[in-house]
From TrEMBL:
The keyword Chaperone belongs to this UniProt entry's keyword annotation: no
Protein name: DUF4136 domain-containing protein
Ranges for domain DUF4136: 25-177
Species name: Nibrella viscosa
Keywords: Signal
Tagged with keyword Signal: yes
InterPro entries: DUF4136
Species lineage: Bacteria, Pseudomonadati, Bacteroidota, Cytophagia, Cytophagales
Pfam families per the UniProt record, alphabetical: DUF4136
Length: 188
């Protein structure tokens, strides 16, 4: 009986680990804005919102800015020369502590009848990270597009963080128009 309990506990622990929150990406935009008018950009870290010393720190800010730069260039946008950009891309990263709770409400044979067995509750504490990319019309300073991702980005090993942040930013920017001169009808 104890062996079954140990196996069940290991199974639930494995299940909790495999159910760790994946990176989720979402976006929103202003459908009234004609994106065809934009072709240049400037990238800035949102200094007021990058308060998290780890996820919002300089290393991760550089990772995010580099990934944004590569993504925008791949879509046909050009970096602004002399600060006169059509678009201002502001980003920030933050984190918060989360908890996942799971119960394995077991039913087992009880004197020939099925009845309540053991109920074991497992909890897992983790850090959820968020990257937010805001795109502004530089002339009006109105936000025209926003993309964000949530998940466990900072839990990776040092060598994997560059890849994790780059892939996350690329996932966010997949929802941005494919190239300068197209409008939101091209967004998939």
């Amino acid at each position: 009986m104890k062996l079954k309990g140990i196996i069940a506990s290991l199974f639930v622990a494995g299940l909790l680990a495999s159910c760790a929150p994946a990176v989720t990406v979402k976006y929103d935009y202003d459908p009234k804005v004609n994106v065809r008018q934009f072709s240049t950009y400037r990238i800035e870290a949102d200094r007021q919102r990058n308060a998290d010393p780890i996820v919002g720190g300089n290393l991760n800010q550089r990772r995010i800015a580099d990934a944004l730069d590569q993504s925008l260039k791949a879509r046909g946008y050009k970096p602004a020369q002399g600060g006169n950009a059509d678009l201002v891309i502001r980003f920030f990263a933050d984190s918060r502590d989360r908890q996942q709770i799971q119960s394995n409400n077991n039913w087992s044979p009880y004197w020939g009848w099925w009845g309540p067995g053991s109920n074991q509750v497992y909890s897992r504490n983790y850090e959820e990270n968020r990257i937010v990319v805001n795109v502004y019309d530089a002339r009006t300073n109105d936000i025209i597009w926003q993309g964000w991702a949530t998940g466990q980005l900072n839990q990776r090993k040092e060598r994997e963080r560059d890849t994790a942040f780059r892939e996350t930013v690329v996932s966010i920017m997949k929802n941005f128009p494919e190239s300068a001169g197209q409008d939101y009808g091209a967004v998939r």
